[in-house]
Structure formats: structure tokens, C-alpha cells
Design goal:
- It is a single chain.
- By secondary structure, the chain is of the alpha+beta class.
- Helices cover 39% and strands 17% of the residues.
- The protein is built from 6 helices and 6 strands.
- β4 and β5 (151-157) form a beta hairpin.
Length: 185
């Protein structure tokens, strides 16, 4: 009987050791292996160049025409993004919404060409309509995606949760810029 008990203990110890080894080895990935797809740019990677400058000017002009105050954002912000936008340089601006100080973010992405911007806008629209994209925004979120040359302008807000009466005016003003990519509700 003692021999049987010792055999069971040994099997359990061996099984535990094998399980521990499997867990330890599963964390030993080859970090030098080539990655697929374009790497995401750091959150602070600024969009520069004529397209980013033109998009910034258009955003500030449209919002100014609506008597809305906008400035460069000091707050880190990243909306739900399809892969092409996650990899693109961006600038983040924030519209002053006194009753909703944590909202009003407008993101301008700089893409290499107008065709790349159009493809990225389509990818973003598809992503926001997909399961993974939908869970990143509450139901009823209004997504604004506007293309201006090789730049994309992205803004989202939740009408049912907006505390500031100017929130809808931000979306209206931005929709006057460039070509819209409508996201189905």
C-alpha cells in the first residue's frame, strides 16, 4: 500500500513539474522573429508635412466658424482604430467643452497618399462596424471620418451621453471638411 501511495505522489510531482515546464516554455517566444504588418507608431508620433498642416488649418477654421475653441491636446488620447490608422502618425486636438472637459478630441492622421487615406477611411469604417470595433464604442456613438487629401480627420461623440450643448456642433463643423465616410449606426 505504501508503494502505491509513493507511486501516486511521484506521478503527481512529475505531472506538476511537466505542467510548470510547459507554462515556463510557453513564455519563451522568439522576440527577434520578424513581425507581420506595419508596426504601430507611438502615441506621440506627430503627423507632419503639408497634408497635416492643411488638415489642422481646416479643422481650426471649421470649428472657429462655429465659434468653438480648439487647441493642441496635452491629454493622451487614442480612439478605436483600424490597423492603417494605428500605424499612422497623428495629431490630437481638443475642442473646449466646458460641461464635458474629458471629451471633444479630434484626431488628424497623415497617410502617405490620397489613395492610402481613402483605403484607411474604408478600413476604419469597416472596423467600427465589426464586432471588435463596436465593443470599443458605446451603442449610438456618432463617428465622424472625413478625408482631406492624404489626411483623415476622426471625431466621435455619444449624443445620449453628451453633457455639453456644443458637442453636436463639433461633429457638424467637421462634416463640412473634405469627403465624408459615413459609419452606419
Amino acid at each position: 500500500m505504501a508503494a502505491r501511495l509513493i507511486g501516486r505522489v511521484r506521478r503527481r510531482i512529475l505531472a506538476g513539474a511537466l505542467a510548470t515546464a510547459a507554462v515556463a516554455l510557453s513564455g519563451c517566444a522568439n522576440l527577434d522573429a520578424p513581425q507581420s504588418g506595419a508596426p504601430a507608431t507611438p502615441v506621440g508620433s506627430p503627423a507632419v508635412g503639408p497634408a497635416a498642416t492643411a488638415a489642422r488649418a481646416a479643422v481650426f477654421e471649421a470649428l472657429g466658424q462655429s465659434n468653438l475653441i480648439v487647441a493642441d491636446s496635452a491629454t493622451p488620447f487614442r480612439p478605436p482604430e483600424a490597423a492603417p490608422l494605428a500605424a499612422a502618425p497623428r495629431n490630437v486636438y481638443q475642442v473646449t467643452l466646458p460641461r464635458d472637459p474629458d471629451e471633444g478630441f479630434v484626431v488628424v492622421y497623415a497617410l502617405p497618399s490620397e489613395a492610402a487615406a481613402s483605403a484607411a477611411a474604408e478600413a476604419q469604417r469597416d472596423y467600427l462596424a465589426s464586432g471588435p470595433g463596436r465593443v470599443q464604442s458605446p451603442p449610438g456613438t456618432d463617428h465622424v471620418i472625413q478625408q482631406l487629401g492624404p489626411a483623415l480627420i476622426v471625431y466621435e461623440w455619444l449624443p445620449a451621453d453628451a453633457q455639453d450643448p456644443n458637442a453636436p456642433r463639433v461633429a457638424e463643423a467637421l462634416r463640412t471638411i473634405g469627403t465624408p465616410f459615413v459609419v452606419a449606426p
